[in-house]
Write a structure and sequence with these properties.
By secondary structure, the protein is mainly alpha-helical. Helix content is 72%, strand content 5%. It is built from 5 helices and 2 strands. Strands 1-2 form a two-stranded antiparallel sheet. A hairpin with a 2-residue loop joins strand 1 and strand 2. Helix 2 packs across helix 3.
Length: 78
């Protein structure tokens, strides 16, 4: 999995993610770039931050916004 790409698409900052995981930004970069093995607890935490219901966060947010505007449009048309 390309965590860099998922993080980029999510719009989250690596510093914020590292803070939530309780690690430094440099450590996070080593883990996601594969220069150090990622501990299981970091992988679990990272997946909890980046994925919702098995979908990438940006996809979930995009669907939520699309549904919001569809509901708003249907209310305006009635």
């Amino acid at each position: 999995m390309d965590y860099n790409e998922v993080i980029k698409k999510s719009g989250l900052k690596k510093g914020w993610i590292a803070e939530k995981l309780g690690i430094g930004r440099v450590s996070l970069s080593h883990y996601i770039n594969g220069t150090r093995p990622m501990p299981d607890e970091i992988k679990i935490g990272l997946n909890r931050i980046l994925f919702v219901g098995g979908k990438p966060m940006e996809e979930v947010l995009s669907e939520s916004l699309t549904n919001y505007y569809k509901r708003k449009e249907s209310r305006n048309n009635t």
